[in-house]
Structure formats: structure tokens, C-alpha cells
Amino acid sequence: xxxxxxxxxxxxxxxxxxxxxxxxxxxxxxxxxxxxxxxxxxxxxxxxxxxxxxxxxxxxxxxxxxxxxxxxxxxxxxxxxxxxxxxxxxxxxxxxxxxxxxxxxxxxxxxxxxxxxxxxxxxxxxxxxxxxxxxxxxxxxxxxxxxxxxxxxxxxxxxxxxxxxxxxxxxxxxxxxxxxxxxxxxxxxxxxxxxxxxxxxxxxxxxxxxxxxxxxxxxxxxxxxxxxxxxxxxxxxxxxxxxxxxxxxxxxxxxxxx
Length: 258
Description:
The protein is built from 10 helices and 7 strands. It has helices at residues 32-41, 47-61, 73-81, 87-102, 114-121, 138-144, 164-172, 187-196, 225-233, 235-241; strands spanning 2-5, 18-21, 126-130, 153-156, 180-184, 200-204, 216-218. Helix 1 crosses helix 4 (87-102) and helix 2 (47-61) packs antiparallel against helix 3. It starts with a strand and ends in a 17-residue tail after the last helix.
């Protein structure tokens, strides 16, 4: 496994299909990283402001808000904090939360059966973890999740969704777009750009109510394992069998952290 910032990606051509997995919310599960982000931010807010952020985040994570209110936990923290909190302050809190995560101070886990699935795919598929997160202890974190030996490459600071405009051609290197499957839990960041150019897509739609298209969808990543296996066995047949209508991308994720 190697870890590279997106700007330094230089992987040589490969005949293997490319499985692209998102990190936060897809292969790294648990509310701990979101709370670590909020808790790094709260000391800089006044008491009432901090209370509103904390209570609003609790409601969101408990499923007590409209699913359309926030795109994910990170965007919930940003929007609940409000425009009066400087970007530099948000960024510093985010870095602090990632350091806590990499140090093992935050409880996270991988989806059931994911290490076994990735081991099963083995040399048949190039297994790429692609995340907007920076490389802060990523190798140690993947080891804790049981994924260090079943991921071929980690691309950090990807800048999704816009970063896909550069990364997808690099990852495909002239191959048919069907030979790349992008899997993630944020439609705008993980699904929209790959879908637009003809790549296969697997959407972890946790609410089960998002109408935006993908080749395969499930409320959990394990629910997508049959589709991932089917794509790996025959990418072209998979894309031919499932032809979603391509919708216009939604509004950009305010946090773009995952």
C-alpha cells in the first residue's frame, strides 16, 4: 500500500479494473470523527453558540432532522457554527480532529466483511482509497481498521468533487470508464462526476430516499458487496445491465471533508 497526495498521483497504466472507495462514512464508520471535529471547535465559541452547535449535531446524528438539512456530519458542524466562524478556525479544528483520530483517541470501525471482500478481490482489481482528508496518520488508521493489507493505494487531499476531473482520467489511463467503480456515501462528492463520464457507481444512500441516480445503491456498504463483486467479474456487463439516467450534480458539499 502506498499513500500519495492527489497532486502527486503517477500510477503507471494497469489492465486491472479500478475500485475507488471513499473513506469517511464509507469504509471508516462511527460518529466519533464528527464529534472530534465539533469538540475541537466548541471551546472557541460562546456558551449559547456552543450549545446550539452541540444540540444541533446531536439531533442530526440521531436522525432527528430533515435528511436534506445537511449533506453529512462535517457539513452539519460547519452550518451549525454559522458564517461568523472563520475558515481558518474550522480548518484548525478539522486538523485537530484528524490528529485525534490517527492517535487512536476516536472510536471508528470498518464495515462488516470489508477486509474479507477486498482480500477476495485481490490481484483482480486495483483497490484505491480516495479521500479528501489529508494524510495525517492514514497508514496507522487503516491498520486499526484492518484494511492496511487489502488496499493497494491511498490518495489523500483529493478535492472531490472537482478533483475527480483530473483524477478520473489518471486512474483510467485511457481505459473504458466502465472499468472504474466509484463507491461512496456522498452523491455529489463520490458519484456525480464518475457517473457523468460513464464510470460504474455504487451509492451508500443511508436514508434510502435519495432519488439521484447510481448504478447500484444500498443503505450500507455491505449491501453493495454483491454489486461490487458483479462489477469486478465483468465491468462492461455491469454497466450495460444498470443504466441510470444521469442527473445534474447537486449543490457542492459545504465541508468537502469526506
